[in-house]
């Protein structure tokens, strides 16, 4: 008995291919903050309050690159957050805010930064010593802890005003973002941990922060990609003129200006 093939079976097979292809694309979106090559790697941001001031506190913020192989190359990292209240930055060492913001409500002493959501970058090598602190001024370049632990940390100091002046009244910033130098990192919420401890230079005395919180940022190759992994043209099975496949798909730039930059469209029609 011969096998009978109908046009409907061909249509169903094409629907099956389309379904499998779309499912394949969907699987890429399920790991938004996960790097399969380094599942336990992360960048930990430690925020140490070192002293209280008249209207806030002085803190040292340090980033530790606990990834096995992924470095942060030039032009370096940029760290952002959103203040919980109406905090401002009076001064900084070892880093700088990219914008001052609107400080018009202040008279007399003008804050260093009044942005509700500031963005901080590292200072460049060669910065004057009176503007430096330990582990700063590398242009935002950060090595991985496994390969070069001596250069796997980056720090800056800031004096925060219009903030709480005790453990009970201070509020942690939220919505942390990390770009290194492009997208790819997802940061969790700030979590209060045991205060950090520090050794004096002679190693004979230990001091500790008044309050410490950590933020963990993880890397995802999916988030770092500028264009989707795949694209599909839902054109007619037998006629490519009804819904034609674009010449340049998946948010790529023009092939005329940058040859080879476009992702070819996957055609499901014959």
Describe this structure in words.
It contains two helices and 15 strands. The protein is mostly beta strands and 270 residues long. The strands form four sheets. Strands 1, 2, 4, 7, 9, 10 and 13 form a seven-stranded antiparallel β-sheet that branches. A four-stranded antiparallel β-sheet has the order 5-6-3-8, with no helix packed on it. Strands 11-12 form a two-stranded antiparallel sheet. It has helices at residues 7-27, 221-224; strands spanning 43-52, 57-65, 78-82, 88-93, 95-97, 119-122, 153-161, 174-179, 185-187, 191-193, 197-199, 206-208, 211-219, 232-233, 266-267. The longest helix has 21 residues, at 7-27.
Strand content: 25-35%
Please tally the β strands and state the result. Answer: 15
Largest sheet: 7 strands, antiparallel
Tertiary shape: globular
How far is the N terminus from the C terminus? 29 Å
Indicate the structural class: mainly beta
Helix content: under 10%
Q: Mean pLDDT, nearest integer? A: 80
List descriptors.
mainly beta; 15 strands; single chain; disordered N terminus; 270 residues; 2 helices; four-stranded antiparallel beta sheet
Q: How would you concisely characterize the structure shown here?
A:
By secondary structure, this protein is mainly beta.
Chart the SSEs and their pairings.
Blueprint: H1 7-27, E1 43-52, E2 57-65, E3 78-82, E4 88-93, E5 95-97, E6 119-122, E7 153-161, E8 174-179, E9 185-187, E10 191-193, E11 197-199, E12 206-208, E13 211-219, H2 221-224, E14 232-233, E15 266-267
Parallel strand pairs: 14-15
Antiparallel strand pairs: 1-2, 1-13, 2-7, 3-6, 3-8, 4-7, 5-6, 9-13, 10-13, 11-12
């Amino acid at each position: 008995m011969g096998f009978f093939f109908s046009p409907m079976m061909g249509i169903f097979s094409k629907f099956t291919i389309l379904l499998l292809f779309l499912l394949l694309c969907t699987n890429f979106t399920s790991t938004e903050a996960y790097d399969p090559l380094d599942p336990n790697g992360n960048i930990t941001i430690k925020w140490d309050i070192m002293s209280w001031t008249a209207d806030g506190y002085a803190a040292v913020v340090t980033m530790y690159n606990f990834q096995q192989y992924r470095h942060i190359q030039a032009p370096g990292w940029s760290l952002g957050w959103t203040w919980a209240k109406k905090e401002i930055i009076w001064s900084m060492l070892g880093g700088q805010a990219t914008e001052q913001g609107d400080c018009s409500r202040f008279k007399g002493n003008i804050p260093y930064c009044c942005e509700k959501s500031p963005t901080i970058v590292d200072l460049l090598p060669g910065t004057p010593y009176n503007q430096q602190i330990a582990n700063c001024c590398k242009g935002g370049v950060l090595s991985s802890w496994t390969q070069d632990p001596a250069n796997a940390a980056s720090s800056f100091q800031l004096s925060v005003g219009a903030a709480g002046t005790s453990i009970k009244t201070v509020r942690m910033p939220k919505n942390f973002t990390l770009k290194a130098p492009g997208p790819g990192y997802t940061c969790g919420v700030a979590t209060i941990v045991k205060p950090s401890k520090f050794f004096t230079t002679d190693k004979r005395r230990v001091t500790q922060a008044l309050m410490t919180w950590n933020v963990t940022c993880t890397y995802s190759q999916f988030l770092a990609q500028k264009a989707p992994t795949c694209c599909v043209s839902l054109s007619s099975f037998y006629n490519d003129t009804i819904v034609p496949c674009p010449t340049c798909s998946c948010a790529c730039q023009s092939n005329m200006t940058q040859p080879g930059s476009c992702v070819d469209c996957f055609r499901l029609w014959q």
